[in-house]
């Protein structure tokens, strides 16, 4: 049987911008601030962010607002590279992603109508999984050699 190139190259459908009367940049900025308020109070994640972001929270929050506007509204406002930014965070453990996602779900549930919270959380989970893979996935070598 010959495999048709179109069959091999099929991709999941493109994500579309979320269109909802409440959801604009101001709304996303408030959600981002709610989420990072939780993260900063967390005993495990708080010190990790404090060590990197230090006194520059406002620029970080604006960058994260750009990021979420790009992810949700597809407005192209973020142009950074999340993978290298996380690869250099040597103190982060794989389990920290569960804590991050718990705070994200709580912030989204508190601030968003349920269907909007679901879109944010679905996209956060998908991106968290690819970051987690980029940071922690290693193929086991038989015999455990380096
Ligand atoms: C345990 C989980 C995570 C930790 C501890 C963490 C920590 C951090 C820290 C400390 C920075 C600042 C890096 C810098 O300024 O050099 C950062 C940046 C960033 N994070 Fe995370 N992060 C986590 C998960 C995530 C997830 C799941 C997402 C997306 C859904 C995300 C998206 C971003 C983005 C977009 C940036 C900005 C990168 C750039 O353009 O400079 N992070 N993160």
Report on this model:
The protein has helices at residues 5-8, 25-41, 45-53, 57-72, 82-87, 96-111, 114-136. Helix 2 crosses helix 4 and helix 2 crosses helix 6 (96-111). The protein has one domain: Orthogonal Bundle (Globin-like), CATH 1.10.490.10. The chain has 146 residues and is mainly α. It has seven helices and no strands. Protoporphyrin IX containing FE is lined by residues 45, 48-49, 52-53, 63, 67, 80-82, 85-86, 89, 92, 96-97, 100, 124, 127-128, 131.
- CATH-derived architecture: Orthogonal Bundle
> In the CATH hierarchy, what is the superfamily?
Globins
Q: What is the rounded distance between the termini?
A: 40 Å
Bound molecules: protoporphyrin IX containing FE
Structural class: mainly alpha
Low-pLDDT runs of 5+ residues are none
Strand tally, please? Answer: 0
Number of domains: 1
Rg (CA only):
18 Å
**In CATH, what is the class?**
Mainly Alpha
Describe the global form.
Answer: globular
**Average pLDDT figure:** 92
Count of alpha and pi helical runs? 7
CATH fold group = Globin-like
Largest sheet: none
Share of helical residues: 55-70%
Which band does the percent of strand residues land in? under 5%
In N-to-C order, the SSE pattern is: HHHHHHH
């Amino acid at each position: 049987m010959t495999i048709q190139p179109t069959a091999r190259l099929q991709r999941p459908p493109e994500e579309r911008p979320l269109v909802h009367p409440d959801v604009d940049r101001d709304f996303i900025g408030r959600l981002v601030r709610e989420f990072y308020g939780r993260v900063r109070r967390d005993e495990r994640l708080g010190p990790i962010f404090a060590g990197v972001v230090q006194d520059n929270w406002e620029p970080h929050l604006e960058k994260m607002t750009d990021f979420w506007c790009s992810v949700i509204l597809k407005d192209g406002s973020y142009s950074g590279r999340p993978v290298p930014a996380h690869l250099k965070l040597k103190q982060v453990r794989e389990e920290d992603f569960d804590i991050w996602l718990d705070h994200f779900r709580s912030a989204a549930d508190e601030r968003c109508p349920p269907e909007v919270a679901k879109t944010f959380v679905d996209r956060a989970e998908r991106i968290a999984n690819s970051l987690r893979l980029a940071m922690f996935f290693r193929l086991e070598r038989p015999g455990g050699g380096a």
